[in-house]
Amino acid sequence: MRASALLPLAALTVCCCSQVGVEAWQPAAAPLLSRWAKDVTPDQVPEYPRPTMSRGEGSWSSLNGLWQFVSNVSDLNQPPIGKTLSEELLVPYPIESPLSGIRRTTEKGYMWMRRSFTASSCGQGQQSNAKRTLLHFEAVDWNCTVYVDGEMLGWHAGGYDAFSFDISDVLAKSKSATHELLVGVFDPTGPWAHGKQSVSAVTKPGGISYTCTSGIWQTVWQECVPETYITDIFNHPSFADKSVSVTVDVSSSLPTQSHHKDLVATMAVHVLIAVVDSDGARRTVNATGTAGTPVTIDIPDDLVRPWTPDTPSLYNITATLLAGSDTVDVVQSYFGLRTISVAKDKNGIPRPMLNGEFIFQAGTLDQGFWPDGAYVAPTDDALAYDIQAHKQMGFNMVRKHVKVEPRRWYYHTDRLGLLVWQDMPSAGNRDDMHREQFSLELTRLIMGRRNHPSIIQWETFNEGWGQASEDFTNSMVQLVQKLDPHRLVNDASGGHCTGGPAWTGGCYGNVTDLHHYSAPAAPKVDTTHNRPALLGEFGGILSIVDEHQWAKGHCHAYTLNMDGQHLADLYTSYMKTIAQLRDTPGLCASVYTQITDVETECNGMMSYDRVMKANASAIKAANDLATKMTLLR
């Protein structure tokens, strides 16, 4: 896609520079690091950043690593093209994090990031028809402008979504094999969508907002594609219908005459899905259709493998773009066969259904912060560990709280089997301009993460933050339901409705949602509107682990401090109550605050650097009280 944004700022980005010496980098001093920090090096190669659409080995290369950096600027009106910048920064770690090597904020929110790079060898070897080069940014917070070889490519506003540029023509103008990439960033950390980021937390941690993230904070990479290529692949699986619908979108850099447009519009797409059984046998089924229109594949009964937290079976997708009998482009993807719905049980209580069955969802609030990387996990193993820890403790769901993770995080929840409630990062939404930008970024969130089977529910607002008005809340719910009618929508987790109790959402969406600390409770069951009752936040048990604190002596939570054994005992008593609330009045899910400590908020099941506080088996046994037992009535 072309970079776009609501608010154009004056010259915002440029990129160019020689990559600095690897031996010069080291993490900035910090009060705490996780055990994965030692594995971080400037020359490490990241895992492929877009698991839901790949072209295989040799089609991409990373531009992470050491970049030049400067932040003592008052604006971005004079891009430092061809100039050496004064500091070095390890991308993709945000400048406020220890792993960036910087760990500070900017004075006015402006910064430049610069490096040199060698273009991918597109059009050679197995990629002989891949002659175009795309430059991808997985996320830059917040507003950035990008230059290659002194030429401005465009700009982008929004800190959580990916964007890209076709840089082929710019590269072709240069006689050098080495090119300059320059990125200018302005990040005010609000009032735009920013979740729980705080500038002041960098030097004065405290409260429930944490170290902010500025600039590049996800992978930068380049990719070789054909002149006419697949830009996106969208799948809609249905366990109820035993089918999957796959839509393949196509773009072309060929001349824009009408006959070329007609050619692209009528190009054939061959879609093959495959499942590998436990004995290693590969079973396939396929269909052919037209680019840009859904291709529906019926799945034979003997190939049906439902996706659930206990059995997270994934099908592989191979989509081939054809011009007559010639292969133009091929991409790989995957999907999980599952259906999300709401139905009443035998007692008339509305329940969320996964593949037609009610599964009580026991999850945690996951804010996605790290002591070493702020918004960024130090390594992919670290990123996956939090999900593995959920599974180890018997949780089957996670609420990703006012943050959007890198695409690989959702790949891990897909393959490991963890249901996801995805929050939209909160924003001020104080006027029409800000509300329009919020709507744009919410749209990008849905479109960018909709292929992941683990995501079953979207959360538009949290506790009334940025709701602005009931009309605005309702309009955002309708937007999400239009973009994705196949998942549930929570209008406001613990939010506000006129005439309703405080801290209870459920005016316009598919569920009602209560926040209640510390002991659990249940919202009123809404049988009239068929809305399942959810406990969107509870718990927050204080448990301080010595030598694993971000700021010693400043921990806070919702209870008195207790050791790991007492944490497990109290949590078990809470889950006994939740099991009773599941049966009467009909609670359907619970979200414990939270999976890890975050800076001075010390109420995690693990410390901030991911040390387990209580016995994982004891926490699992407590969760099993609600998730594994049948209804009492």
Description:
By secondary structure, this protein is an alpha+beta fold. It contains eight helices and 33 strands. Strand 23 (350-354) and strand 24 form a beta hairpin. It starts with 59 loop residues before the first strand and ends in a 6-residue tail after the last helix. Residues 1-22 have low confidence and may be disordered.
Name the poorly predicted regions.
1-22
Rg over alpha carbons? 24 Å
- pLDDT average, as an integer? 91
> What is the end-to-end distance?
53 Å
What share of the residues lie within helices? 10-25%
Main sheet summary:
9 strands, mixed
Widest sheet, order of strands: 29-28-27-26-25-33-32-31-30
How many extended strands?
33
Q: Main traits of this protein?
A:
29% strand; alpha+beta; single chain; six-stranded antiparallel β-sheet; nine-stranded mixed β-sheet; 633 residues
Detail the topology: elements first, then pairings.
Blueprint: E1 60-62, E2 65-70, E3 87-91, E4 110-118, E5 132-137, E6 140-141, E7 143-148, E8 151-157, E9 163-166, H1 168-172, E10 178-186, E11 197-198, E12 210-211, E13 215-216, E14 220-225, E15 228-238, E16 243-252, H2 258-265, E17 268-276, E18 282-290, E19 295-298, E20 315-323, E21 326-335, E22 340-344, E23 350-354, E24 357-358, E25 361-366, H3 380-392, E26 397-400, H4 407-416, E27 419-423, H5 432-449, E28 455-459, H6 470-483, E29 488-490, E30 504-505, E31 512-515, E32 533-539, H7 564-583, E33 587-593, H8 616-627
Parallel strand pairs: 11-12, 25-26, 25-33, 26-27, 27-28, 28-29, 31-32, 32-33
Antiparallel strand pairs: 1-14, 2-3, 2-4, 4-10, 5-9, 5-14, 6-13, 7-8, 7-10, 15-16, 16-19, 17-18, 17-20, 20-21, 22-23, 23-24, 30-31
Helix pairs in contact: 3-4, 5-6, 7-8
